[in-house]
Amino acid sequence: MKIIKSILSWIIPIAVGLLIAWGVTHFIVSFVRVDGTSMAPNLSNNERVVQFVNGKVRRGSVIVFDAQGEDPSVTESKKYVKRVIGVPGDTISATNGEIKVNGKKINQDYISESQQYATNNPGPVNIGNWSSLKQLGTRMEWQQAKPVKVPEGKYFVLGDHRSVSNDSRYWGFVDGSKVSGVVKVPFWDNSDKKTAINEQWKHFFE
Q1: Pairing of the two strands 179-184 and 154-158
Q2: What is the value of pTM for the model shown?
């Protein structure tokens, strides 16, 4: 009995610790590595960030999602990190970098004017101005539906580095079931980054 009690005395704490760690990473927070430069200058390639698994997704939130089944070029599970521009029911238009959601101009002071302009003119691919999501989807030949408004349970996302980002402009919406969390940068990071990533949703419209 003493041997069994001795064994249990160290097995139980380890099991409890593992269970807590599993619960934290699956239901509260986990770490994600940013792959690529599509969120520059606010998030860098290979930067590790925290995602809140059950974080509320708002316009302006930076989210992590599985791109498989969303981006047709992705054939296996792959995490994308992008910024939410449109939520269900929103209309979105863009003219020379000026984006309007439901007819209201949004605030884009977290990126340069050149990257704002690249929303419509990213360089190699001519996206052009769009007055509706339907027009954009038709022009870019989305494989999914091309409605005027963001559908229920979906999000329209863009990368901050618009000239290189592979995002909703090219393939359409992100299903909410694919979203694994909302990105936050730690309190010790610089104030500009914290505002751009953690708090942009508070200042989404101009």
Answers
A1: unpaired
A2: 0.86
